[in-house]
Amino acid sequence: MASGVKWAPMMKKNPHAGVVLAAQLKISQAFWSAMDDDTDYKPALLEPYFMYYSEQCKAYHSYLRKGFHSLTHPDLVELAKDLKRGRTRQDVRANVQLKMNAVGASEFPGMPEVCADHLLNLVGRLLMTDIGRLPAGGNWTGRAFRDWSGGSIHDFAANAFPIQQSCRHESIRLDLDFNARNLHFIAGLKIELTNNLLDHLEVVHFEGETTVMIFHHVCFLQNQQHEYFPPGFVTETLQTLALLFPQGKWFRKTKAWYTKELRPATPDADPAILACGTLTMTEFSDYRYWHDRLVRLKLLFDQAKPRTLRQWWNDRRDRQWHALWAAVALGVLFGLVQSIEGAVQIYMAHHSDGGK
């Protein structure tokens, strides 16, 4: 696969080393801008995404190098442009195989077909959606994935993220207390940041622990100009993050919790999740793609009962919270008064006996 851009090959000794800023801009323009080679396109905060980009290149490195001895980042850029133009997987795959055969990759039996599939899956994964299993397999991670067997990348996205509004929501409502921090501190759920859009708002039960997956790459979403995803999908996804990481009364506590617990556990954590905009979609009916997952998550939150003193302290959803802690405070106060009164009586009795 040839390229006129003079960038270092990916398939070198350390192919997943950090991508230089100039290359990041070129790659971003190819993947996200509305037009090819749009020099006016200026994406923001690229570091979190390119940590993910480098990890994906690393994961596919040992398999792709068998067929592409000099694969470069511009090669991925050219493939991204082909997919952005709406070309089908079958068409692009056939073109990749022809180029591989032309440079002698056919010395590896069956390798052009296998490598072409891996390469297209890699490019698809750079849209932050797990396409196909990683070549190396590995242990179960809880991550969802989808196979992309044919059609355009736009067709794949439409099938992967359909409208889902089958769950009833009349008996529940979105309120200010429903956020990621409270899901953890009140409902006792583990919160895990994910770079796979397919996992967003999914509840995973594994080894006795319940985990909520939250897609956190806000800048990836905000930088999108080309419509890979269904209409309104990107805006709606950002609104789910504005709901779970609110800008209002919970902001300070949410920021402190995120900074202390979530960010250290996620090397590519996107800090823009704390500034993803004002929440305008305040009703369940406003959501189409994430509606059912939001409803299930809210039901899980509403039905959760505090089990520890810390959860009781943080749970202010019920008006009984104030009565409970008022009763506790009064109990402590009365106990203290009685203790002081008892001590005074003992003191008086002791001195009275001494006077006799």
UniProtKB/TrEMBL annotation:
Domain of life: Eukaryota
Species annotation: Podospora aff. communis PSN243
Protein's name according to its UniProt entry: Uncharacterized protein
